[in-house]
Every structure is written in C-alpha cells, then in structure tokens.
Amino acid sequence: MAEEHFDVLTKSGEKTGVSKPRHVSEIHRDGDYHRAVHVWIFVESTQELLLQLRSDDKDSWPGQWDISSAGHISAGDPSLLSAQRELEEELGIKLPTDAFEKIFVFLQECVTNNGKFINNEFNDVYLVTVLHPIPLDAFTLQKEEVSAVKYIPYEEYRNLLAKEDPAYVPYEANGDYGKLFEIIRQRCQVNVEARSLSLQKQLQRYSPVTLEANLAELSEADQKALGLIVKAAKVIDDIFYEQVWYSNPALRDWLKEHANASELDKLKWDYFLINKSPWSSLDENEPFLTTADSAVKLLPEATKLIAGWKGIEYRAAFPLTKPPGANFYPPDMDKMEFNLWLSSLTEEQKHAATGFFSIIKRRSEANLDASQSNHLANIAKKLTDSNSDLYSAPYSEIYRPFLTKASELLHKAGDLATSQSLKKLLHSKAEAFLSNDYYDSDIAWMDLDSKLDITIGPYETYEDEIFGYKASFEAFIGIRDDKATADLKLFGDNLKLLEDNLPLDSVYKSKDVSAAPIRVIQLIYNSGDVKGPQTVAYNLPNDEKIVEDRGTSMVMLKNVQEAKFEHILKPIAEVIISKEQRGFVDFDSFFTHTICHECCHGIGPHTITLPDGQTSTVRKELQELHSAMEEAKADIVGLWALKFLITKGLLPKSMVESMYVSFLAGCFRSIRFGLTEAHGKGQALQFNWLYEKGAFVFHEDSTFSVDFTKVEDAVESLSHEILTIQGRGDKKAATLLLNNYCTITGPLKTSLEKLESVKVPVDISPTFPLADALMN
Q: Which Gene3D superfamilies does the protein's record reference (predicted)?
C-alpha cells in the first residue's frame, strides 16, 4: 500500500498545496499544520459520552482514554468522509452523513515524546447523538488502534479533564475544547418556559395576514387547472426543503408529527414553517432548533447484530451554523477544492458546474453513505467519469422523483388551461423539469398573457452563499390585476431611456435593452424559496443569456405590498420618521419605488468584458457578493430612476418628497431582515452611505428626516459606485464597499431597538385559504 500523506496547511488552516508522508520523521517531526477529525458519540438518555482506550502501541498518548473515534484526514480527502471512515474502522460503526454534526474546529498545538512529536492539528469536531447506549458487544474494535470502550457521564469526564487525570488524554475542558461540554449541557438542561417565551417573541415579529383574490373571472377549466398547479407548487416546496439541507425534510416531518405533543413543540413547528429550516432568517440565521430537536432514525445494521437489540437510534443532525453552500455542495467542500476541480474541466463541463441548474456531489458519498437512495447512487455511477471526487449532477437527475410528479401535474393543467400562452408555459415548464433546459420555458414565462399568472421553477440564488451560482426552486401563483398592470406600462417602455442615462461610464452600459413587461397580480399561493421575509415583487429570469437576448419581466405582488405597507411600513413611519415628514409616507410611493427596483434589475451591467478581454458575467465575478450588490443596485438606481422620470415629466413632481421619505422608512423595514440576507445587507449599505453624505438626518428625539438638498447627489453617487463595480466585475471593490457600509451604526441601532421595544412587526406571515380549498 502507498504511504498515507497529509495536506500541509498554513497556520490559519488553509491548504498550501503541499502534502507530506504521515511518518513521524516528516509531518510530526517538522510540526507541520494538518487536519484531523474528532467524532464524539453522545447518549441522549443517559447523558454519557463514549470513550475509547488507545492501544499501547500508539505513537501518542498510548494506553489513555480518549475521544470516541479520531483520525487524520488524508491528503485530498473530505472531512466528513474521514469521520465516517474512522468510526467504521476503529469501532465497526457504519453511519450515514446525516448522523454527523460538525460543532466546531479545534486547533491542537502540543509537543510530546521529549520533543520528537510535534502536533499542530486542526480538528473538525463532530457529534453523533444516539438515543440509547450501543451495547459494548456491538462494537468491532480495531485492536492496533483501540483496546476497549466505555461510557462515562459527560460532566464526570469534564471534571476528570479539568483535574488533568493521567488516565485520560488531556484537553482543555475549560478552554476551547469546553465548547463540546457547553453544547451538550445546553441541550440537556432545557428551560421549557424560557424557550417557549423566546419562540413566541420570534413568532410575534411576523404579522399574520390572509391573502386572497377574486376567482370569478376564471373559467371552470382554469379553476381546475389552478388546483393542479397548486399541487405542483406543493412539490416545489418539497424540493426546496431538500435544497436547504439534506436532513431538512426529515426534520420537517418529525416536527409536524410531534407538533401537538406540547406547547413548545407547536411553537417549534410554527416557526419552522416560516423559516423552512432550523435557522432563523431574521436573526442572521442563528439556529432556533438543535439536533436534539431533530428526527430520530433507526439503523438496524449499523454494527454487528446483537440478539434482542434493534439497532442504533440516532438524531438526524444539522450544523449550528447554516451551511453557506446549502445542499448544493458537499458540506466539507471549500472554494479551493472547487476551483482546483473546475480548472481540470472542459469549457462545457465548467458551464455545467457553475450553472444555475446543477449541484456538486462527491463520488465517495455514494460509496460510503448508507442513507443514499438507489436513485442517487445510480446518478453517481453514471456521471463520475473523472478522477476527481467531485462531480456535477443536473437538477433533472437529482430531483427526478419530485420533478416527474410536478411535470405530470403541469401537463394536466396545461391541457385544461384556456389561455394559449398559459398552456404553452405549463407544457414547456413541465418539459424543462425533465430536460434541465429552461430557456424555452422562461421565454414562455416572459410572453405570458393570462388572467391566471404562474411563476414556477428554479430562479433565485440567495441560498448559495459560497458562489451565488445555484438556483432554488420557487412558485408564485396569482390572479392578474388588469387595471394596475395597464397603469405600469410606462416603466417597462422606458428601460432603454433609463439605461442610456444611467450614472455610469458609457463603456459599461448595455447596448441592447428590451422593454420589460410588468404584470401586477394578487397572490393566492407561494412555495419553495419564500422563507422568512416575503417577496413583494420579482424580476426574472436571472439567466444572463436570456437577459441579453430578451431582457426580463417583472411581477408585482400587490396584495403582499398592501399588507406590508399597512402592517409594517406605516407603524415604522410613526416611530422613526420625524413628525414634519411623516405625512409624506404613502403607499403609491412605496409601490412605485418597488416597480423601479424591479425594472432596474434589468438594466446596468450583466454580461461584461473583463480587463483581459474575456467575456464574463457580474454574477460569476462577484460570486457570493452578487446578491447583496444587485439588490443594493436595484434599490438605489430605482430611486435615481424615479427622480429621472419625474425630471422628464413622465411622473408628477409631487412625488419627489414622498418617494424619498417613503424610501427612508423602507430602509428600516429591510434592514430588520438581518445583515446576512441580501436585501437587508444591500439596504444597510444604502442607508449608511446616504447618512454619511448628510441625506438622512438623525434628530435628538431619535427620529430621522430627509435633507432634500443633499439626497439627489447622494443617490447618484452611490448608484455610480455600485454600477461601476458591477461593470468592472471588481470583487475586491465590492468586498471593501460592503465591509465599510454593511454595519449597524449607532443611530441605526437606536432606531432598530426603538422599533423592537414598541413591537412593530418585522414582516408578514401569509396564509392562503383559496389555495387550501383548491387542494381539497
């Protein structure tokens, strides 16, 4: 066998590109930084940890009690795979990936064996939670590594470490490694009353609203089609739950099943439905649940069989920190690994790997993970023709069971639809689900001219916080408001005029800008990527090829905007806006700026030319920063566009004051979404820029007003800054801008605390009785 090698890391834990043999004369002699995994098995019912007794032949800490299982990560291997492998090799336990919860990374720096063994090790610490002790006879011990195993109460073990008992491998129980014990303690000592109160407060930030529309103008056939479309949208929800995190569907089903067990369980379920995950959207994705709340799964054959024992019952795990790559990438993949793999691909393969409609997986997952379905295992076999562990798989294969069902429903709905354009959209989208080619279906969506308005498919990339490449599935179903739609034709027709006059050097301006159709609908159902704060409008598609060929289309959700204005923006204005300017806040200005926001997604740089002459896109160059920068652009350029249209006599001059003051009030609405969310981050950038320029003024009574003599120049200067960064594809400048301005400054913090103290809701939580009735 070839000698095992380790990746050599920098002191900050990044790969150097060098690997060395494991032999003591190399990696540990030189004190090179490297990686390892620690796997702890915790027994929920007895509150014990499993320890192993290290073999007397080990080169470090021989004959001492240690972690349940641990081992080095070989060069090129992923962390999670190493954790699974070590547990199986040392203890004979074969567990799927969803049993492992990565809780922190611990840097161990120590010298033993009279200075001959220098251990500089980054340890990925995993926790496996089982309900009951695994019988000792069920373990198959790797004798050269492990002499015995035992259970010990976690607090007793912590005390032994604190006393530096020589029978145990030393760890700083009161230092960095104490996180392990603190996490376990928090889960074991739950204050039900305090936790219920906390969840109630989180839920109260959402104002419940009912969203409906008049279906009287729909024919009987269209109403039947609508019922089928709602069912397809329910399937879209199932896909999105899986896109967020691989154990998310199991958590959802478990919480639903136990929702009526207690008041606390009901609160967990209610807040999970809003966030569609265990991470709170309004709290910068802080977890409101832990793995201790998660689904219990049974593995009868994870160890050797023991008479009378049914097998391992474990908690399906999820990390405390929301994975930046969601379930689009392996959880232990980093950018360096991805980019190294990407550089080995053909141009066609690169396009697929960085495209909207694929996910990145590991071949090794299929080989080791017992939880993989036969469907996913077959995909791995079919698509892994490379020497790399990573491979790209299309949505049409990964989500085939879901998409087949959704496709059948849309085809049936298309057969019933009376509108020819709706019929074309439904059939083409049904075909796209199975072919993974969405171009024609998105063109059909742009051409939609129907009373029944449907948006369904993978679109927004907010969940992919690593690169911003991967699209999440979503659905919006509504009834078109014909009068409001006719009133807005002005905005779509003037996109070329706006593009030509953008505060941006001509070299970065788009030459071909198409008029953007705008549709206004009354929303009757949404699903998929609609977690947390609700969307008031959207501009699609995001595919740069379609934007270049045809532009974009906009959909305004009027009843959602009306609900937000009444329940959120008006109460904010009463608290935050100075008494003299409060009367300027009105729905028309709020609604009109939202229109301009969506219009401005369709103008400005999209496909760009880099300094070396290569063609790229803003999305690919700015990567994970693209969403926040694009939302900030649409917002601030939308405000610039309103003033420009007023100056041209296309909108009334009476709007000037109201649009600026309504925008100011709206800043607080979006910033309250949190600075990890693209809209909140983009809004913080705008607010702090305008405040710094004196356009927003903070008063002694903790209210704000607009300085009308400064706001126009401030808006134009920020518009120019963001548009130029996008035109250059300058990620370094985008990082600097966001770092400097995406903060909660003193006056902003004061105002946000004031809104919190008077319990102004942050957003709405809609229910859809019409859709529910159609499902019955």
A: 3.30.540.30, Nucleoside Triphosphate Pyrophosphohydrolase
Report pLDDT digits (tens) over 206-216. Answer: 999 999 999 99
> What gap in Å lies between CA 462 and CA 542, rounded to an integer?
12
**In terms of Cα–Cα distance, which of 104, 71, 115 is closest to 89?**
71
Answer whether 229's CB lies under 8 Å from 222's CB.
no
Per-residue pLDDT reduced to its tens digit, 510-521: 887 877 788 999
Q: Using alpha carbons only, what angle is made at residue 436 by residues 435 and 439, rounded to the nearest 5 degrees? A: 100
Contact assessment for residue 342 and residue 350, using Cβ atoms and an 8 Å cutoff: yes
Question: Hey, is 134 helix, strand or coil?
Answer: coil
- Maximum Cα–Cα distance across the chain: 87
Residue in 631, 628, 636 with CA at minimum distance from that of residue 734: 628
End-to-end CA distance of the chain: 63
Q: Which residues lie across from 21 on neighbouring strands?
A: 5
DSSP assignment string, 273-324? HHHTSSEEGGGTTEESS-GGGS-EEEETTSSS--TT---EEEEPP--SSPPT
* 128 φ/ψ angles, rounded to the nearest 5 degrees: -110, 120
SS3 184: helix
**Residues with Cβ within 8 Å of residue 650, at least 6 apart in sequence:** 490, 494
Q: Give the DSSP H or E segment for 740.
A: helix 731-741
Q: Is 161 helix (H, G, I), strand (E, B) or coil?
A: helix
User: What is the residue-wise DSSP string for 221-255?
Assistant: HHHHHHHHHHHHHHHHHHHHHHHH-TTHHHHHHHH
Q: Which residue has the tokens 């190294």?
A: 340
Kindly report, residue by residue over 636-646, the tens digit of the pLDDT: 999 999 999 99
141: which residues sit within 8 A by CB, 6+ positions away? 52, 90, 91, 92, 147, 148, 149
Tell me the pTM. 0.85
Task: Locate the DSSP E strands across 375-502.
Answer: 390-394, 452-458, 473-480
For residue 120, list its beta bridge partners.
33, 109
Dist. CA 205–CA 764, nearest whole Å: 8
